[in-house]
Design brief:
Blueprint: E1 6-13, H1 17-28, E2 34-36, E3 50-51, E4 61-62, H2 63-76, E5 80-82, E6 86-90, E7 96-100, E8 105-114, E9 118-120, H3 126-133, E10 138-139, H4 142-145, E11 153-157, H5 161-173, E12 176-180, H6 190-197, E13 202-205, E14 208-214, E15 221-226, E16 232-236, E17 239-242, E18 246-248, E19 279-281, H7 293-313
Parallel strand pairs: 1-2, 1-8, 2-5, 8-19, 10-17, 11-12, 11-17, 12-13
Antiparallel strand pairs: 3-4, 6-7, 7-8, 9-18, 14-15, 15-16
Helix pairs in contact: 1-2, 1-7, 5-6
Bound molecules: NADPH dihydro-nicotinamide-adenine-dinucleotide phosphate.
Length: 316
């Protein structure tokens, strides 16, 4: 990595609700935060349509609109919001080095707040991606979007704890939930499997893979195949949920930070602290369980407060 061209007191990497909340708190504490927005300015919420579960928006708000408002709020307190993404880090010294845009710029920072988030995995079907991109009823977050399918019939793909949890969540709202499991058993914990199997309006289709999500403007159905019998089938649905896992955006921190086996950053319980002093984590990069905008925002606040206390203890 080249020599740093700039020194920053508080560097924030990533611009979802965690990053912007960290920025608001850090800026108000006079840490003069600099934020690099990353590959997807605004984060995962820019992929959703309406956000109805973030406190303070009685009429709901669109995901992209909420992110614009968060950016404005962070900038009102003079956060320096920049486009660009972090491509390498060096956390070996007292000052933390971060390379941006493959070496175009290198900064050193007293504190780094990581809020690089996670990305939902998708099946990769053309029909799925097209309907997702037009807000046509394909979602990777049942808690965010399930409400829009009240009393309707939906399908969910996946067989882990997330899929099981989301299927039971959807079952409370929807008339019927079809769950597509690609093997002859689920990966989810036994307790979650029992909950799914004991929910009357969830029908589990084992050995089943999605062939195509049907619909032009919005989801109207799904075609699937039994990968053992090769029998094809079709169901009428209005919502298609994908819950096949997330990938935390933490690759550049490998070798520096303690990560779990799936790549999530391990924080010290009840704090945003990582194993490196002065490096803090917030949002989905460290959270595979809750993954909500409001929980990400909460941990962004924690990271800024932890950074402020760290700097104060160092006499900055
Ligand atoms: P997982 O990686 O555990 O599960 C992903 C599931 O998606 C697997 O069942 C997998 O099938 C399936 N899958 C993957 N790709 C495809 C595909 N292309 N087509 C169809 N199915 C596919 O992810 P989760 O998000 O469920 O969980 C992540 C972690 O978070 C886990 O450790 C989990 O235990 C934890 N978690 C804990 C919760 C809790 O404690 N309350 C709640 C939610 C998550 P296969 O099994 O065949 O590989």
């Amino acid at each position: 990595m080249g020599e740093p061209q700039e020194h920053i007191s508080c560097l924030i990497i990533g611009s979802g609700p965690a990053g912007y909340t960290a920025a608001i708190y850090a800026a108000r504490a006079d840490l003069k935060p600099v934020m690099y927005q990353g590959m997807q300015p605004g984060g995962q919420l820019t992929e959703t349509t309406d956000v109805d579960n973030f406190p303070g928006y009685p009429e709901g708000v669109s995901g992209p609109e909420m992110m614009i408002q968060l950016q404005k709020q962070a900038e009102r307190f003079d956060t320096d919001v920049r486009s660009g993404w972090a491509t390498k880090v060096d956390f070996s010294g007292d000052k933390h080095l971060v390379e941006l845009d493959n070496g175009k710029h290198v900064v050193s920072a007293d504190t780094v707040i990581i809020s690089t988030g996670a990305s939902a995995k998708w099946l990769g079907l053309e029909s799925e991606i097209r309907l997702r991109d037009i807000g046509g009823g394909v979602s990777a977050c049942a808690v965010c979007d399930g409400f829009f399918y009240r009393n309707q019939t939906v399908a969910i793909v996946g067989a882990g704890d997330t899929a099981a949890e989301e299927a039971t969540y959807l079952a409370k709202l929807c008339e019927k939930v079809h769950m597509f499991v690609r093997r002859d058993e689920m990966r989810a914990s036994k307790a979650m499997q029992h909950r799914v199997m004991n929910t009357d309006n969830i029908e589990v289709h084992f050995n089943t893979e999605t062939v195509e999500v049907l619909g032009e403007e919005g989801v109207t159905g799904v075609r699937m195949i039994n990968n053992v019998t090769k029998e094809e089938g079709q169901l009428d649905i209005t919502g298609f949920f994908v819950a096949i896992g997330h990938k935390p955006n933490t690759d550049i921190f490998k070798g520096w930070l303690d990560l779990d086996e799936q790549g999530y950053i391990i924080n010290q319980a009840g704090t945003s602290k990582t194993n490196i002093e002065g490096v803090f984590v917030s949002g989905d990069a460290a959270d595979k369980v809750y993954r909500q905008a409001v929980t990400a925002a909460g941990t962004g606040c924690m990271a800024a407060l932890d950074a402020e206390r760290y700097l104060a203890a160092k006499g900055h």
